[in-house]
């Protein structure tokens, strides 16, 4: 049942919105430094700093996500309506971190 609870949480509108809020906060504080953005997300969500390996994995994830978001068709008729792929990628990373066991189950 824990898996179902995690899936429900991961896909909830509340978690999606909070993930976007966390991504915006990380960008506002850390600027364009992807490493500092990831460190900020980790500190705020877990109280810890990411390891070097976790930073590398985060960069790989963010690159793949930003590429995927950039390839999506624009909704509506206005090309200017496209959301920032880097923000969307960071928000999806935040969503994964917020729904991770490290955050859900505190020792």
Please describe the structure with a list of short key phrases separated by commas or semicolons:
about 110 residues, mainly alpha
Summarize the structure.
The chain is mainly alpha-helical and 107 residues long. 73% of the residues lie in helices and 0% in strands. Helix 2 crosses helix 3 and helix 2 crosses helix 5.
Taken in chain order, the helices and strands follow as HHHHHH
What is the straight-line distance between the termini? 20 Å
What's the multimeric state? single chain
Structural class from helices and strands?
mainly alpha
The portion of residues forming beta strands comes to under 5%
Topology diagram in text:
Layout: H1 2-10, H2 13-30, H3 34-46, H4 52-71, H5 85-98, H6 101-104
Helix pairs in contact: 2-3, 2-5, 3-5, 4-5
Overview of the structural elements:
The protein contains 6 helices and no strands. The protein is mostly helical and 107 residues long. Helix 2 crosses helix 3 (34-46), helix 2 (13-30) packs across helix 5 (85-98) and helix 4 (52-71) crosses helix 5 (85-98). The longest helix is centred in the middle third of the chain and has 20 residues, at 52-71.
């Amino acid at each position: 049942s824990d898996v179902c609870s995690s899936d429900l949480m991961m896909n909830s509108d509340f978690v999606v919105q909070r993930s976007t809020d966390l991504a915006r906060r990380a960008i506002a504080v850390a600027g364009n430094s992807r490493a500092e953005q990831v460190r900020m997300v980790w500190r705020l969500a877990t109280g810890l700093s990411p390891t070097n390996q976790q930073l590398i994995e985060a960069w790989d994830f963010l690159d793949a996500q930003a590429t995927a978001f950039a390839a999506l068709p624009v909704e509506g008729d206005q090309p200017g309506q496209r959301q920032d792929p880097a923000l969307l990628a960071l928000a999806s990373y935040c969503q994964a971190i917020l729904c991770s066991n490290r955050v859900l189950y505190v020792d």
